[in-house]
Amino acid sequence: MFFRLVYQRISISVIWLVQLTSMLLAFACCASSSRSAIVDRTKFAGTVPFTCRLLNGDQTVGMAYTPLSMLMPGYALLSGTSSVITASANGSARLSVQLKNVASVRPDAMQMQVRNAQMGNRPIANPNETNNHTDTLDLEQSLQLKLELQATVLDQPDEYEIEATITCFQP
Questions:
Q1: What pTM value is reported for the model?
Q2: Domain 52-169, CATH
Q3: What sign does the dihedral 135-143-54-83 (CA atoms) show?
Q4: Cα–Cα dist 122/36, whole Å
């Protein structure tokens, strides 16, 4: 009788456990299929912009006057050299140097040498009349430039103003 009572209790417990498991599984299936979920994804995107710096590029350079009476009577030479201009970029860059007369009086001729101050002032660009007073050069690393201008003018009192524009751009 004892074994029979134990068997009945175990079988009732097993049946009850099977029924409970079935109900839980049914609830889990139904609950997951009827439940809706909202999924939101936030993406982060960024861009490193191209930057180029020109330090000490905004200058006014006084030009020296030299009469050319022996070589070219009636003409004079105005010449000047800028302080060091440092150009740097965070990637591959090009520099454009453009020479432009901004006064009403035009020089007879003008020529500029762009020199590399780090390499003994070696010329690296030459904006002149043959290239429409614009020349470009590659900027692969930080570069120290000096601009050297020579303008041939009439040897008469007048005001001359010549502007050199340096533009840094991504090729």
A1: 0.71
A2: 2.60.40
A3: negative
A4: 73
